[in-house]
What does this fold into?
Amino acid sequence: MTTPKIAVYSLSDLKNTTDDALPNYLTSLKFKQSHILTDVRLALSSTAVIIAAITFYADYKLGWDATKEGTFWAVIAYFILNGALTYWVWGVEKGKVFVGEGKNGALLSISSSTQKHSPIYHLKVRTSSSRTAEPTTSEISCPFTRWFDSDGYFVAKPFQQWLAGEIAIIGEADPKSVEAAKKVRDGYVELTDGDIKVPQKESQGNGSGKETPSKKIREKSRKNIKL
It folds into this structure.
């Protein structure tokens, strides 16, 4: 399935599309995602909505005089739940887009963020070899143009290569992407706007008519890459 086209000047669209792609990639590498954060958020918001719905129905059926005391406590409960939800989103989740563990039991937590008017994707990565081991935290960043082309389409491979090249636990699960990322860093190929360009030294003086390795990679990258 081809990813939908987005507005390249919309920072929220760039971030949200990338956030959605990150857990999809990790689960394809057999990482086991924990849904506890999402489940708690859903439970808090659903309970608040149910309380509001029951209060409205009771007031509609029984009238204000019969329900005013119950409404008072329902309003208090509603605001407590919304306060708890706000704290959970901003104080606990803190922009986390993935929480889970690898096949060897290593734990991985990734939070994403952007800064106003800056098309840079920031990740805060927290890893530990086990539940009892001391976690380590690192921060990485990269421009969105690394994996979005000029038309607004998300290209998965450059994004996956960046993650595998920067985060060791992901690189261990996807060594092919690590090798591709090393070639990018070494100048063998250059990723821009989701495309791969032939290095200057390859593009000059090659009159043999044969395809260079970078040319083959570039033409492959133009195909629709599935998430």
